[in-house]
Write a structure and sequence with these properties.
The protein contains four helices and four strands. It is α+β, with helices and mostly antiparallel strands. The protein is elongated and about 70 Å long. InterPro entries: HicB-like, TA_system_antitoxin, TTHA1013/TTHA0281-like.
Length: about 130
């Protein structure tokens, strides 16, 4: 569930630019002065909504089938949000972990000047194909 795709409706704003709504997440609204800015703002707004839901342990709604959405006075654009990339960028606060390794391995690693935190991070990234 790292890459999520949600339909958004882009509406032309009276004052120029676009405002954007998400049928599956009614509280998620944004705007932009042009199509590019509106799209970037939509990605940010979607990400903020989804990560807030996740932090609150709320169910993230399933994305609607784009063919079943009434676009009203706008047009449909599917917005992609990469949850893993967002976490890497915004959730990189260090977390202390306690672990156990054999004494002989610890001594050899210390003697070799190994950075335990770096090795653990690299191994976890590789193990989980991140």
């Amino acid at each position: 569930m790292d890459r999520l795709f949600y339909p958004a409706i882009f509406h032309k704003a009276e004052e120029g630019g676009f405002w954007v709504s998400f049928p599956d997440i009614p509280e998620c609204l944004t705007q932009g002065e042009d199509m590019n800015q509106a799209y970037e703002m939509a990605v940010d707004a979607l990400g903020l909504s989804l990560t807030t839901m996740e932090e609150r342990h709320e169910d993230v709604p399933a994305a609607s089938d784009p063919d079943r959405i009434d676009t009203e006075d706008g047009f449909l654009v599917v917005i992609e949000f990469d949850m893993a990339a967002y976490r890497r960028k915004h959730c990189s606060r260090a977390v202390k972990k306690t672990l156990s390794i054999p004494e002989w391995l610890n001594e050899a690693a210390v003697k070799a000047g190994i950075n335990f935190s770096q090795v653990l991070q690299e191994a976890l990234i590789e193990k989980m194909n991140l």
